[in-house]
């Protein structure tokens, strides 16, 4: 049972990582590449954060609530108190986690389809409140002119995160790697086994000493915090947010699609989905169908669930376990 | 007088909601498929009616049979698709139809653009005698169609042999199978009738509110709320649920303003899921059920 480092998944991951680290040196200043890959990493991070909770077997259709609250919390704090984006992004994550706490209190006993519906409806609550509270949140006009990330000094070199696309590319790559590491620890650790037991059979898991409510709540809080963090990063990268943009169905749906497609029980599954689908959408579908290019994601969900419900990553996985 | 006018408007809005929910309730009851693309199908019917009325000058009532027929065909295709979905059935159909909703939204975006559309009605409002209350033609058609569809479905389920078989399938699939009912055919019938009801709701949607590609989610939520409120397979409860929701929304709009309307349905849905997931109007089961 000694797993050597030569398994195809590990090899593939190392190769991909090396490629993403060194590709900017080969491509020089290809703006399209940076923009597309930055957003790919971004959605990969979002999908990984989403999947933390989906691993417990409850599928959320409402992570846009955490995302939007994180974005608004971060943007408003930066707008009114002029704090550094690094601090406000953390605050955004905490706002997301607070809403996650409300979910654990309110939806703690809901499972399956009922949970999914309740989460779908709970996106509306912060959206409508923010839309109507014009004196504080600027309502449907949105928050504009959010300050970008300030420059980071490493020794004598100053990296302008606000302007340089290349710097943003590396920032998002790092964020995604951190969330990937959390996701990996989550799956491989004892906690991961508890979560898996909950997914398969909750009564049996609690018999074996898994604290059902505590495990679910902490997992949801972590997932909400990371999603809120992503929302904060988004606000400062884009410089503009408005309720229909950050509380959209698209934000809730995309992590689901990417994770299902990549493989929801695998460490790199959600990221794999993002790396394949988002560039495909942006480069190919966006030029073919400028208005309705998101049709790709809908088709992918249907095809994935009908024909390979464990995602394309499971093909690699299965071959390894057989050999 | 304002209050009476408000009640009339709430009543017609509620009838519309009941009509939106009927198709969903039937399909969910018979097959346990959670059709999140329900609202998008209604919008599709609405756009079809809009095109027919706008480009071919079909009179409004003439569009109803056409959209109903088109939606029956689409619903049967949907049943073929959902039959292949594995366990857990409710959650997986929810996710698949969520994908379908995205596909339909984007298709409508491509075909009809994101502009707001509505089927205009030229006829003036009717003033009720002895009062100053106004009733528009659209409201008359709405209340009429809604009552007619509910009554027809009620008679179908309660008075015919097919209805008996459908109700047996709604109550207990396994027992229905044991009694010799072809459950698969019943689910086909459920989807077909549900499709016809969706087709009826579509043109009325286009006449009542503005059509835009991403508006379907709200219609789906309304259908789900009313179905959960009424409890599975209870047709009269749907009408009551529709009216209750219509009154709740109209009162909120009157008291707080239009911006808060969307909050009502979300809050009602969440509280229903938490408090009475089996439905407010459902009776307690007479015999103890076996677990599992």
Tell me briefly what this model is.
With 323 residues, chain A is mainly alpha-helical.
Layout of helices and strands:
The complex is a heterodimer of chains A (323) and B (292).
Chain A: H1 8-27, H2 31-54, H3 63-81, H4 85-107, H5 112-122, H6 124-132, H7 134-137, E1 143-144, E2 152-154, E3 157-159, H8 165-188, H9 190-200, H10 202-207, H11 212-238, E4 240-241, H12 243-246, H13 249-262, H14 269-288, H15 295-307, H16 313-322
Antiparallel strand pairs in A: 1-4, 2-3
Chain B: H1 2-31, H2 38-55, H3 60-82, H4 89-112, E1 126-127, E2 134-135, H5 137-159, H6 161-171, H7 173-178, H8 183-208, H9 216-230, H10 235-256, H11 261-275
Antiparallel strand pairs in B: 1-2
Number of helices of chain A: 16
Major beta-sheet overview of chain A:
2 strands, antiparallel
Percent of residues of chain A in helical segments? over 70%
**Chain-averaged pLDDT of chain A:** 84
Radius of gyration of chain A: 20 Å
Tell me what you see in this structure:
The complex is a heterodimer of chains A (323) and B (292). Chain A has 323 residues and is mainly alpha-helical. Chain A contains 16 helices and four strands. Chain A has a two-stranded antiparallel ribbon with strand order 1-4. In chain A, strands 2-3 form a two-stranded antiparallel ribbon. In chain A, helix 13 (249-262) packs across helix 14. The mean pLDDT of chain A is 84. Chain B has one domain (2-118, 127-275). A two-stranded antiparallel ribbon of chain B has the order 1-2. The longest helix of chain B has 30 residues, at 2-31. The model of chain B is unreliable at 285-292 (pLDDT under 50). The A-B interface holds A 59, 61, 106-107, 110, 112-114, 116-118, 120-125, 127-129, 131-132, 249, 253, 256-257, 260, 289, 291-295, 297-302, 305-306, 309 and B 34, 81, 84-86, 88, 90-92, 94-96, 98-107, 109-110, 113-114, 214, 217, 221, 224, 257, 259-260, 262-263, 265-267, 269-270, 273-274, 277.
